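Form 7-S
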Amino acid sequence: MRFTSLGDGIVAKNWMILGPFGGPGTEAFGMNPHSLADKKAVIDFYEKAEYPPDNNIVNPAEKFSGELIHGYWGKPREIGWRKASVADLDVRVDGGAASQAWYGATWIWAPANVEVEVEFSGHLQTYIRWFINGDPFEIAFKEYRPGVRTDVPRTYQGAIRTVWLKAGWNQVSWRTYSTGYAVTGAPFRIGLTVRAKDDVLWKLKFSGEPPKK
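Output:
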């Protein structure tokens, strides 16, 4: 056994995730939209759609029902937040299939306000809205690059940005949908890795559940 530094950063291994959301019109979509027109229809729909979890409140006990959770996948009676961990040999957690809206959240505790570097990890043909403590953190689709990491599957896309963590618990969350990726397989995957000097990283805490107040 050999102890090394945290130079590669700390992966957020545990998450709460929620989905799928759809609604009227999504019964015409599919798990793998083939044509550019089909992909554009998915983009146009989900960029305009609004769902209850858009309030960025993660309540593990909350359940969602009704037509907003129905789509080409059928008509589930209800859905709720569930715990999830990163996939084997990956730094990302499994989400859902294409043409569905999904949500995820994880939490990072810092002893004081601190600047860190975050690798936001995504997936091919996947559109992600990131939020930090409920505020939008904009990363354009075109900013994601496949070459950020070489130790994960070829579905990987990543973007590296500087982030300020406040003292205490910080919620990092996302809302995501995909437009298909038949050649690479399903489901899509999302994750993040935090990098900083060792003396900063050792003091951070990570949680896959909302912190108790």
